[in-house]
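Example (one chain per record):
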Amino acid sequence: MKEKFDIQGMTCSSCQSHVEKAVNKLDGINMVNVNLLSNSMIVEYDENKLDNEKIIKAVIDAGYGASVQEKTSNKQLKKETKQLNDKDIIKSMKKRLIISICFLIPLMYISMNHMFNEWFGLPVPQIIKQLFYGTENSINFAFTQFLLLLPIVYLNRNYFIVGFKRLFKLSPNMDSLIAIGSSSAIIYGIYAIYMIGFTLGHNQIDIAQKYTMDIYFESAGTILTLITLRKVFRNKIKRKNY
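Predicted structure:
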């Protein structure tokens, strides 16, 4: 028997490979072909040994979603429905991207304004100097960056949800790498904020300055925003091809 399935949650070639391996392990499988671009899977199997529910369960156990592709006589209607869904997905991603960029720009400016001044000779506004320059403003400097990062993390939280879920299932994908990299920068940044407060309170100025320069909230924000930008372009390409 030959059946076609819609697969949810695939983001990279590693995901495609995990789905194929999970289904190929089932007894009675003759052929599995997973298509990342169309998020679909074609399976040939012995219906005396296997059924659709077992195949779907294998995909779900691997950390992805699956459903039997609906059969319809009206192919044009089906195509139009898919195009509308893809359009909504791209629109949602664009919204996430625009808002993420709106928070990333001030985050980058606060964390790197001294570099902008050196590179481009741009004058630093007095209010920036008063709020963020000097060891006495180290907490302002670090905590403001953290607050600007939070909306970016929330908008792109799906990378963490899916990434760690795949990691715990021992089937890491690109989202897992994004989640680990971003989380490392965020966790260390929070640790640095506590250490800045502690060292300033104990008059350990040199250590406080070191931790102030070792904050990477802007790196986490940049990773999440650029990955979302990549996905916007990728979905546009998919929509053109399918």
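Caption: The chain is about 70% helix and 10% strand.
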